[in-house]
Amino acid sequence: ITHKKGITLIFDEIITGFRIAPGGAQEWFNVEADIVIYGKAIGGGLPISMICGKADFLDTVDGGFWQYGDDSHPQTELTAFGGTFCRHPLALAACRAVLLHLRENSPTIQEKVNQLTHRLATEVNQFFQEIGIPIRVVNFGSLFRFEPFGAYSIFLQPIELPLF
């Protein structure tokens, strides 16, 4: 739909990237974004984020396919882009190690973690139900959260209610 309408589709995969499936939420929902943002897990605990996307969008950041020291040159005008940890060698080494580990162990690693999280949610929900706590665990893959329900939900989730 976005492609037909000429709208850029951007996915924030900082949390879901490589977690719900090897291809993140894009793979899970069978959607291909124009630009994707990754972070957190990709750095193996080090500060890193990645902006990935189609050449139409990213060539203005890095000039397209070219490198220093040969006859190639940027194919487009460059935009200044920088940051405190841009291209930090330690973070890039960690990122490479994480990507290699994911490539060697996907989709098994995601399936296993998703199954364990589902089991955790099921067992915690059963426990809460047995002792009468009006909270349930909801999960999407390995992501989970606690969700109050019933008479107490108005006190535990006021930000989601039209009170203000």
UniProtKB/TrEMBL annotation:
Cofactor list: pyridoxal 5'-phosphate
Record's keyword annotation contains NADP: no
InterPro entries according to UniProt: Aminotrans_3, Aminotrans_3_PPA_site, PyrdxlP-dep_Trfase, PyrdxlP-dep_Trfase_major, PyrdxlP-dep_Trfase_small
Keyword Secreted: no
GO molecular-function terms, A-Z: pyridoxal phosphate binding; transaminase activity
PROSITE patterns to which the protein is assigned, alphabetical: AA_TRANSFER_CLASS_3
Superkingdom per UniProt: Bacteria
UniProt-recorded name of the protein: Microcystin synthetase
